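Section 3.1: Structural characterization of target chains.
Under the original work plan, the team committed to producing a structural model for every single-chain target entering the pipeline before any wet-lab resources were allocated. The record below documents one such target. The sequence was received from the expression subgroup and is listed exactly as submitted; it comprises 395 residues.
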Amino acid sequence: MKSVKLVGAIVPFIVAGLSAVANAQNSITLYGRIDNGIAFVNNASGTNDLVTLRHGLSNSRFGFKGAEQLGGGLTAIFQLENGFNESTGALGNGGRIFGRQAFVGLADQTWGTVTMGRQYDPLVDLIQPITADNFFSSVTATPGDVDNWDNSLRVNNAVKYLSPTWSGFTVEAVYGLGGVSGSLGQGATYSGAVSYSLGNMSLAGGYFRATNPSPNTGAKRNISSATNAWTGSSDPLFDSVINNGYISAASVSIARVGAQYVIGQFILAGTYSNSQYRSDGFSTFTGSGRFNTGAGSITYQWSPALSIGAGYTYLSASGNASATYNQYFAGAVYSLSKRTSVYAVAGYQHAGGEQLVQNSNGKTTVQPAQASVGSFGYAGTNNQAIAIVGLRTGF
């Protein structure tokens, strides 16, 4: 109820701000997207199936972004973006009013852009657009989204630099301040990526590292939830059974590369990532968990309105546990207009081996691996399938 009252209180100020900016003849945009569909999940909870309403292509959102020309090629910019549950109207992203993005900055035509606030990391900005996620979203994501393929996290307290494009190259870097008194590095996040485009070919690669502060009490981290256990400047990345055994990790590191090539109406894409979840003396597990992922996809632009695609992902887990996950997806998107599309997406995953999980008494244990398609977060048996038919529109 408090969040709802706060949203109601802030709306008049936003509207007033829109009017003031419009009068000053500065650029401002109100935008949004709503995505909802009927989903069937096989083995959504153990052997129980599920039929529900949920988004299938993209999270629902609305936002404001604007720019003010300051002269000499310099522009002041801002963006506020809210996420919400399209089936219930509830706030998303942990109940934050502008949980998807919230930043302000300066953009220069020659030197690039510097922004400060809650933001995406460079791997999401530069690598994700050349993967199948750009077309078919969560169903294509790495099992459990262990490498943030589908943008499960943002970085708070972040200072980000994005370069102009120089001869096809673009560079981006971010540093998230940890906010721990007396220790600059604790809780900090840092990441960098570079992309290159030449004709029909696009390449990108980058590195991401997030750290988790040590508890003040000297005891093990509070693992009653991922939010309690992870207090660094990045969001926690523990949304599925595949990696929830590592919610008390001291750090998460992700290295990722991607490539895309366009041949006529076909788009070929591939990516590889290495993700590592490391422990310290405050973690409830020892050693580290490592995830190596390879994925490939093909998308065909059947007509200006219809895109179809399919792909395969292989995930290998090692370290504290040893497991493999084989995942397949297929999808089709038909544009009814520039704003509105209908779609159908489906995924299947088979898991083998054993995975590390967090149990109810705060201990980690090893269990037979459970399948969890993409970044949807459902926990089934060693096999799981999901299919969604939906509608997406924007403004």
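The chain has one domain: 2-394.
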